[in-house]
Specification:
With about 350 residues, the protein is α/β, with parallel strands linked by helices. The protein has 2 domains: about 170 residues, 3-Layer(aba) Sandwich (Rossmann fold); about 160 residues, 3-Layer(aba) Sandwich (Rossmann fold), CATH 3.40.50. Helices cover about 45% and strands about 15% of the residues. The protein contains 13 helices and 12 strands. Helix 9 links the parallel strand 8 and strand 9. Bound molecules: beta-D-galactopyranose. The site of beta-D-galactopyranose has 12 residues, from loops.
């Protein structure tokens, strides 16, 4: 029986990717063909997670015989557009994009489509473009549900104050996280059990441009100097660890912790090393862990099957309407991490070493 060469490579590829995601290196990797270059455009190196995503994808693509061109645009939308243009001009076989502004890529992606270059939207949905082939992400609504549930559980019975922060308005994920959180907190707020003293409960009022911790810190400072001048804030919904660190700084500078009122419940996302240390020391309450090695694996598999004539596996064909089309997605499950389970999940799971957390 003759088996097509492409099919053989997909099988070999799948085997290699499976082991790569588990952090082990296969002893021998069959000599791979040169299968061209994959352009990987990530938002920024300022947040540790994107560095992890980029490195994991490079490793996994290379194991399949692809070359990679990994570019970070340091949150500069125009710089990301320019590097995508270069990738298209260079004849890259596929593009994997973690967008900075999910609404700003329509025109550059039409050039990719004209050159028949498939596009994988990575973690963040690219909006307003029909030229997005697939979406690899996590269950983003559930991220918010986990954060809000952590708040409700940690506060316990009685009445409490809470303030809400959301991510960058130009990132499609930000609204999903917020909606997920409000699916839990909304009823607590309308019943009066939770009070948002600032009155700022609308998404548009609580976003944080570019997920910037310094921007969040300023808003928290204003809240502490205003509605919380006389009253304690009991919980803060934060969508991402970098924002949580800004919020915690504002709280500590205003006297929370260190002998003052106890720090409020503060949530987060990404299990960034600095923030996991804050969870271990009791300053931050929880984070939502999303294993970037697994996300990389999904994106690599999607890309590879597109390039070898296969059909990428998806598990959601409804939720992610980008304004032009519903983008077929594979969504991984996020995990709630707090003081009780961070060692088991993150250290036993090989995401961090005990030495990194102690350092
Ligand atoms: C989101 C992503 C989060 C977090 C945030 C800030 O799009 O889903 O995990 O990384 O960006 O970088």
């Amino acid at each position: 029986m003759r088996v097509p060469k492409a099919a053989l490579w997909s099988v070999a590829a799948a085997l290699v990717v499976t082991t790569a995601g588990c952090g082990s290196t296969p002893e021998t990797v069959a000599a791979s063909p040169d299968r061209g270059t994959i352009g990987i455009a990530m938002p920024t190196t300022k947040s540790a997670r994107w560095v992890g995503d980029g490195d994991s994808m490079v490793k996994q693509f290379q194991q399949l015989g692809y070359r990679t061109d990994l570019q970070y645009a340091q949150d500069d939308v125009q710089a990301q557009v320019s590097s995508l243009e270069k990738m298209i001009e260079a004849g890259d076989k596929a593009l994997v994009i973690g967008a900075i502004d999910g609404t700003a890529l329509k025109s550059v992606l039409s050039k990719a489509a004209a050159a028949k270059i498939p596009v994988i939207s990575y973690d963040r949905l690219i909006r307003d473009s029909s030229d997005v082939s697939y979406y690899a992400s996590f269950d983003n609504f559930k991220v918010g549900v986990l954060q809000a549930t952590a708040i409700v559980d940690a506060l316990g019975p009685g009445e409490h104050t809470v303030e809400l922060f959301a991510g960058s308005a130009d990132d499609n994920n930000a609204k999903f996280f917020f909606d997920g959180a409000m699916s839990v907190l909304g009823k607590e707020i309308s019943s009066g059990r939770l009070e948002v003293r600032s009155g700022q409960t609308a998404f548009a009022k609580v976003t944080t441009q570019r997920w910037d911790g310094a921007v969040a810190k300023k808003r928290m400072q204003a809240l502490l100097a205003g509605p919380y001048k006389q009253t304690r804030v009991d919980a803060v919904l934060s969508p991402y660890d970098g924002i949580s660190r800004g919020i915690l700084e504002a709280l500590q500078e205003a006297g929370y912790g260190q002998g003052g009122p106890a720090l409020p419940v503060v949530t987060g996302q990404d299990a960034e090393l600095e923030s996991v240390k804050l969870i271990a020391s009791g300053s931050q309450t929880e984070t939502v862990y999303k294993d970037t090695r697994e996300l990389a694996k999904v994106a690599v598999q999607m890309t590879n099957s597109l390039l070898t004539g296969g059909e990428p596996e998806v598990n959601d064909t409804k939720q992610y309407d980008n304004g032009v089309k519903v983008v077929p997605a594979f969504l991984l499950q996020p995990v709630n991490v707090d003081k009780s389970n961070y060692e088991r999940v993150l250290v036993d799971g090989g995401y961090y070493t005990a030495a990194q957390l102690a350092g």
